[in-house]
Amino acid sequence: MTPWMRSCTTFAKLRCSLGALARVRWSSSVGPVLTADPTRALMDEQIRIRARHLPPLSPVTLWTQMYCEDGDLWQSYAHYNTNSDGSVNLCRDASVGGSYVGCEPMGLFWALQPAPGGREGLRLRKRDVQAPYVFNLSVSGGHVSPDDRGTQGSELASVSIERWYMAPGVKRMEIREHGLVGTLFIPPGPGPFPAVLDLWGMGGGLVEYRSALLASKGYASFSLAYFGHKNLPGPLDTVNVGNWYFKKAYQFLQNHDQICGDRIGVIGLSYGVYLTLRIATLPGVEPSCCICINGPVGSTISLPDAEARTEPFEFNQKHWTFDAKGQVMFKEVSRPDNILPENVVEMEKLSCPVLFIVGEDDTSAASTENADLLEETLKAADKGHLFTRLSYTGAGHLIEPPYAPNARVSLWRVKPKKLFTLWGGHVAPHAAAQEDTWRKMLEFMDTHLRGDRG
Ligand SMILES: *[C@@H]1O[C@H](CO)[C@@H](O)[C@H](O)[C@H]1NC(C)=O
Q1: Deepest of 41, 138, 323, 430, by most Cβ within 10 A of its Cβ?
Q2: CATH 3.30.930.10 holds for 33-164
C-alpha cells in the first residue's frame, strides 16, 4: 500500500465517524479505481475497461493475469499515459508499449502470453465450458514490464473478470447414443432452434467451447468427436468412423424436438473443412449452409476404405516441411496437387451457401489454394453464387472465437520425439481477423439458418 493510499483510508474512516456527527462536506482525494463493464461476460463480448483517480498525465501499466486449467500462468501488459483528468479508458486511449500498441479495447485479452519461464508451446483452450476463465486486471504506476515487476510500480487498483463460453440457461448434454460421441448445447427456451454441427481438426478429441458459445448466441450446437477420443472405436491415431457416422450425427439433429430439421448448418476447421464439405455432399444430407475455416477440400490422409477408416495421420510424412527451428508445418500436405484425386470431395454437388475463411499466414493448411479450387469448381458448375470468401493477411491457421490469444506455435506431440507445429498468424492481425470473422459468421448464420424463406 502506498502512503498516499494509506492516508486515503484514514481519511475515509475519519469522514465516516465525523460524518455521523455533522454533515461536513469533505473534499479529500480518493484512491485509484479500475473498473470493467461487464465483469461477467461471454468470451466474444467487448469489455469496457477504465482506470480513474490516477495522477494526471502520468505513465501507468495495465496488467492481466490468469491461470489456465492446467495451472499455467498467462499474462499481458500495456503502457498507457493518463489523461489530464487522471483517467485511462481502453476504448478511447492507445497503448504506447507492452504486449500490444494502439487503441485496442480487448488487447489485454488477445495479447495474453504464457508468463516468462513457463512451459513451451502452450495453446489456450477451454476444456470445462461450465466454468469461466477468471482474469485479474490491475494498474500500477510507471511504464514497467514483467522483468522489472516487483521492484517498481506496485499495484494501485484491480478488478476481476469472468469470461464464459456458456451463457446462463444453456443446456449441455453429453451424447453417447447411436454410436455418436459428442456434446449438444441447447439455448435457453423452448425452441425450436436452428442448429450447427461443429467439427474440429486432427488435434482430435471433443472440443466444446465454440459450440457452447454458438448456443449462447441462440443456435443448438453439436460438437462431434470423430478421432482421437477414447469412446470412439480404436485405434486412436486413425479415423475409424465414416459416412454413416456423420449422417447419423446430422439425423440426430434433424430428429431432435428442439431443433428445426431444415435449418442445420455445418462448421469445420482444418480437417473439419474436408469433413464439412463431404457431409454436405452426402446423399440425403442437405445442410442450409457450410462454414469452412482454413482447411482442405479433400482428405489429406489416405482413405484405404472410402467409407470409413483412414491410415494413421502420421503414416505419410512425405509433404511435411520444417522451419529453421525444426517446427513442423503441414501446409504442403494439403496443397491440392498433393491430395489424391479420389480423396477430393465432389464439390460440384454442393447445393448450399459456403462461407470460406482464409488466414493468409496459415502455415498448417494451403487454405488459399483450397479456397481457389472450391471457387473455380463451383463456378464451373454454375454455382459460383454459393461461394463467399473472407481472407485475412497476417492471420494464421487457428482462427477461433474472438479475443482468444493466437498460438503461433504449439506442442504437437511428445512421443517418439517432442515436436512443435507452426500454425502461423501474427498477434494483432490474427486477433482482428478473429473478431471480423466471428461477426460475419454470425451474420451468415443469421441469414441462412434463421432468415425468412418466402
Ligand atoms: C486472481 O485473484 C484471485 C483472488 O484474489 C486469486 O485467488 C487468484 O490466484 C488470482 N489469479 C492470478 C492469476 O493471480
Answers
A1: 430
A2: no
